[in-house]
Design a protein that fits this description.
The chain is of the alpha/beta class. Helices cover 40% and strands 14% of the residues. It has nine helices and eight strands. A three-stranded parallel sheet has the order 1-2-6, sandwiched between helices. β1, α2 and β2 form a beta-alpha-beta unit. α7 packs antiparallel against α8. The longest helix has 17 residues. It is elongated. About 12% of the residues have low confidence.
Length: 292
């Protein structure tokens, strides 16, 4: 909601427009020469390619890792979300470290062919040579706050954030202005969820789970059953199941009664009225010679 994705997209569009000779929406702009633009912005799944959204993400980023040069522009928006958080964070940190270190493993023939693009000396190895190149321009938007601890310190890395403020009614207001710095206090999930129309009960549960994860304590389920009473409920359900007649009784009524025992709530009246209405209907006549 703060405008990160829009900011990344407009940078890519402005760079492209400048390179094809179109005017850009700015009073003045200084744009360097870019040979390629790589993006990971939006993954659209399709059965035609038989790839998951995460595999599409990896393919897009893999193109940047393999073919980007020091004059390339790489735009990554929330890369790593399509898998487990720890794995996504590790992938993103490894990719950034790869570019920041400036070491690209190439064969001797490839390195010799690109001799004019190298900015540093090479170190010979048994399998080939390591060509050191400058880091491409990378714009990254992420919610992985721990990423700063996993990438090597470098003057090439600058941290930006978008300004926001709290109104008099304690509502979050986004100013859509980019400034230098890092926002690590909160991702404002509760505030944005409230703006999206979530109920207060859901928001309260979000806070409970978030605080439980931060404090590394057990998170109790909402539909918690007491251990002392669980055996009684289980015995009652078993007795009802043994006494259930699938021929003469309605299975939906039995399931509603069972769920009522688990949740300790009443049986839905809609179901009872439906059963009464069905019982009041006359039996359907079966044509002579038909099988039942």
């Amino acid at each position: 909601m703060c405008g990160k994705s829009v900011y990344l997209k407009q940078v890519g569009i402005i760079v492209f427009l400048a390179h094809v000779g179109c005017p850009v929406p700015a009073a003045a702009a200084r744009i360097g020469l870019v040979d390629k633009i790589f993006t990971r912005l939006l993954s659209e799944e399709t059965v035609a390619v038989r790839q998951s959204a995460f595999l599409i993400d990896l393919t897009q980023v893999g193109m940047a890792v393999n073919y980007a040069s020091e004059r390339s522009l790489i735009i990554l928006d929330e890369f790593g979300k399509g898998t487990r958080s720890s794995d996504g964070l590790a992938l993103l940190a490894s990719i950034l470290k790869h570019f920041i270190s400036g070491a690209y493993c190439k064969s001797s023939l490839t390195a010799a062919a690109e001799d004019s693009n190298l900015s540093c000396s090479r170190v010979g190895t048994s399998s080939g040579q390591i060509a050191r190149k400058k880091c491409p321009i990378i714009l990254l938007a992420t919610h992985f706050h721990a990423l700063r601890e996993l990438i090597p310190p470098s003057d090439l890395v600058n941290y930006l954030t978008l300004e926001h403020m709290k109104s008099d009614t304690d509502n979050l207001v986004f100013l859509y202005k980019v400034k230098t710095g890092v926002s690590v206090s909160s991702s404002y999930a509760v505030e944005t969820s409230r703006a999206a129309g979530f109920t207060n009960r859901t928001l309260k549960r979000i806070v409970e789970i978030t605080e439980g994860i931060k404090q590394n304590r057990q998170i109790e389920p909402l539909a918690r059953l007491r251990v002392a009473g669980f055996s009684i409920i289980a015995e009652k359900i078993a007795d009802n199941l043994m006494a259930f007649d699938p021929v003469n009784e309605d299975a939906r009524v039995f399931l509603d009664q069972t769920m009522a025992l688990v949740h300790r709530g009443p049986v839905r009246p809609e179901t009872s009225r439906w059963v009464e209405a069905q019982q009041a209907l006359p039996e359907r006549a079966v044509p002579e010679g038909s099988e039942v």
